[in-house]
Amino acid sequence: MKIHLSSVFVDDQEKALRFYTDVLGFVKKHDVPMGADRWLTVVSPEDPEGTELLLEPSGHPAVAPYKTALVEDGIPATSFAVDDVQAEFDRLRERGVRFTQEPLEMGPVTTAVLDDTCGNLIQIVHSK
Fold this sequence. Notes:
The protein is built from three helices and eight strands. By secondary structure, the protein is of the alpha/beta class. The relative contact order is 0.20.
């Protein structure tokens, strides 16, 4: 068994697509109209057949309180592996990304947390 799909709830799918592709560097995998919304996934360009991230609409009534609570408590909605957190932090900060946690070494891992502009905090991490 392996993880096939994970999702983040986003306030605006088009805005999320631009952020996750143009800023973070993912590539669009699926974009299927589904009424007012879309089945919209992105993948890593390093693993185009790997785990897909669904940019899921935040329309369900339970989503807003869930997302608000996570952000208020500083809890990332998900985590992405990178080769070098400091280098990604520098690259993304130059692109205007707002971080809520600068790179922090915690034993064998280094993490940083960014705001995805769509209502989520996202952690980037690398292991030594």
